[in-house]
Amino acid sequence: MIDQLIVKMEQAAAEVMQWPRKSVAILHHNDADGLSSGAILMRAFEREDFKVQRFCLEKPYPAVLRKVYQQQGAIFIFADFAGRIAPLLSELNGDQNLTLILDHHVATASTNPRVHNLDPDLFGLKGDRDISASTTCYLFAKTLNKANRDLAYLATIGAVGDGFFEDGRLVSQNREAAMEAVSQNLIDVIETDDGERYRLMTSQGLVPYDELTAYLDVLGAVGYYQDGPSMGIDVCLNGFSAESDRMVKTLQATKCRIFAGEIAKLAQGELQTTPHLQWIHVANRFDPMGVKMIGVFCHEIRNMDFIDPQKYIAGFQVIPNQIPGFGPIAFDEVKISMRVPAKLEQMITANKVAPLNTFLPEATNRLGGFSDACHRLAAATTISIGKEKALIHEMETILDR
Question: Where exactly does CATH 3.90.1640.30 map onto the chain?
């Protein structure tokens, strides 16, 4: 398991250090786990005197990947996504570039020796319990140079942000990274009635990790199209600032205003339902927020009075034809994000009903859509605009089997 993963990381790190070009392009997700992953990798490679380019993506869309792989002789690192699409990256990469995948979602093996899929899922670790993407990136950074053990505090950001707890505590590799940071006097842990609470020691005092991750999620997701991810990376590496506080306050107000409007509509009966599903389509009404916000919204409403506690929740949001750092890209696609009410979560955990990562990717693939990062209790894919009802139908068909 972990020993085999470390061996593969050592092989990939050696190939990176022998690569002729001392530059790397880091592509990472925009939530707390993705931002902390990007921060870990940026700091680790800068310490090795690599020129670092960083791109924050909400998903590794095929249209973006085709632009990325127009380069030759490059090193690409994907963090907190792309584990499932290693075969696609293998095809795009050819023998022209070196690619590393540092994800934690359900993964597919690479079909190209120059595409190293270092997703712990391939090595028997559970990506929704044992290890976050940030912890995966931390393990790789330590493999690259043992001096990077001082980045353990960043690994804990992603683990807490993704909510990977067992009985209220981090476990497995996530816990080992947190305890490493505790030994460095960077984190303290306090016992609570329902587990543990982790706090980061900063020059401004103790900062609870759950508050830090919420802060980063606002920057990365609400502020995705307003340079929020860059601010989030800066917060990870340098701490809070007056500028970051102002940005978060403004973005939070935007989120609250937009969410309140949608919740009012749903309370009046605008939620659409089928036998197993309940869903909403916000079209472009979440602008200027990023499309990760449809998942955040589904999570926020999952236990409200108008939600059926025994049905899966789905939300659709149109993807803007613009990606920061890449310019205009014609997508004409919609993102679907899914969450589950508390009662249904208990049924999934008890293996009484299907988890999201079984039927959503299958239904999406039937319609020629794009599937990448899906967990049991949270999942998202993309399809062409106009296929939303067909996707609902396909999911119902699968769930009726």
Answer: 2-148
